[in-house]
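Structure in, sequence out. Go:
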């Protein structure tokens, strides 16, 4: 018999604003009857990609796959100047969903190149955002985990900048390490504030509950980081992609309160579905009967106007709560 009585959803979760904007732009273009592509998957989330597909949005891997006269939505991660030029040359209708934060990173990089700095970019090699950034600074040295940092050379004038979703502690650590490698070190902190807030709220929730469930794509770096942070604060944690991945009530042990959080490309509806599933699977008899209502209460408690992000249509319950 299950023991879970309550679920909590971390406060500032759901889509980050960059992802929400890109998803909304793709929806709007398709709803306006245009042939719409997204360049790459608009989010690392199967459910969202499937719902866009149902509206007629087709992801493409390269511009050569775009139909003539079609609309191409650039996702939040951004693209290189070369790809942007290629889209213009083909006369495609480009809708720029590049997150404003990523655009700022691109501008900063361009400036660092002009100013002649040797640039170190903290980021995951081959991640689309990093690929896009390298288009602005092709000679930047990309480093990720700490065992990679020995590759950083000693130079007179160096600059450090980061992919938006890298954890702040890692950025700080690398900055400290680089102090001794350069005569002049310029640090441009481009860790996205949404990422920081989400990590704070996840840690706050993890401290209040007996067990955490992190929801997000397996390949989503910021989702994995949330799981790691839960481990650091000592909360037992599992990471899932969907509510249906939860099948074994045994994993919850004797937890009575379970927390739910998700990455920047996880819609808040997925967190609600996971919360409900936890109660159905491992709830007390009373919690099982009220699973839907308890999950909705958890969603309402999380969906505060200050921090909510959603791409739900206006007028839905959650969007109304977000206003
Ligand atoms: S995590 Fe931040 S920088 Fe990245 S898309 Fe979301 S809001 Fe933009």
């Amino acid at each position: 018999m299950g023991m879970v009585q309550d679920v909590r959803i971390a406060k500032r979760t759901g889509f980050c604003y960059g992802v929400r904007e890109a998803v909304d732009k793709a929806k709007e273009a398709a709803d306006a009857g245009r042939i719409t592509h997204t360049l790459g998957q608009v989010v690392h989330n199967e459910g969202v990609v499937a719902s866009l597909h149902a509206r007629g949005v087709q992801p493409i891997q390269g511009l050569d796959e775009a139909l003539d006269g079609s609309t191409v939505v650039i996702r939040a991660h951004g693209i290189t100047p070369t790809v942007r030029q290629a889209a213009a040359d083909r006369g495609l209708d480009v809708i720029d969903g590049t997150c404003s934060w990523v655009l700022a990173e691109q501008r900063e990089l361009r400036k660092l190149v002009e100013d002649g700095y040797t640039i170190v970019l903290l980021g995951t090699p081959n991640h689309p955002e990093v690929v896009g950034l390298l288009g602005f600074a092709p000679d930047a040295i990309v480093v990720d985990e700490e065992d990679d940092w020995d590759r950083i050379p000693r130079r007179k004038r160096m600059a450090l900048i980061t992919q938006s979703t890298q954890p702040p502690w890692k950025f700080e650590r690398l900055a400290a390490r680089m102090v001794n490698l350069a005569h002049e070190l310029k640090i441009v902190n481009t860790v996205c504030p949404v990422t920081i807030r989400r990590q704070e709220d996840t840690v706050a929730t993890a401290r209040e509950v007996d067990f955490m469930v992190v929801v997000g794509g397996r390949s989503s770096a910021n989702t994995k980081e949330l799981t790691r942070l839960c481990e650091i604060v000592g909360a037992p944690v599992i990471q899932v992609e969907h509510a249906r991945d939860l099948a074994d009530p045994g994993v919850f042990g004797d937890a009575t309160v379970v927390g739910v959080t998700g990455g920047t490309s996880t819609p808040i509806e997925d967190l609600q579905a996971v919360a409900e599933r936890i109660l159905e699977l491992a709830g007390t008899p009373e919690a099982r009967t009220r699973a839907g209502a308890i999950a909705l209460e958890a969603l309402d408690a999380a969906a505060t106007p200050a921090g909510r992000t959603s791409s739900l249509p206006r007028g839905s319950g959650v969007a109304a709560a977000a206003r």
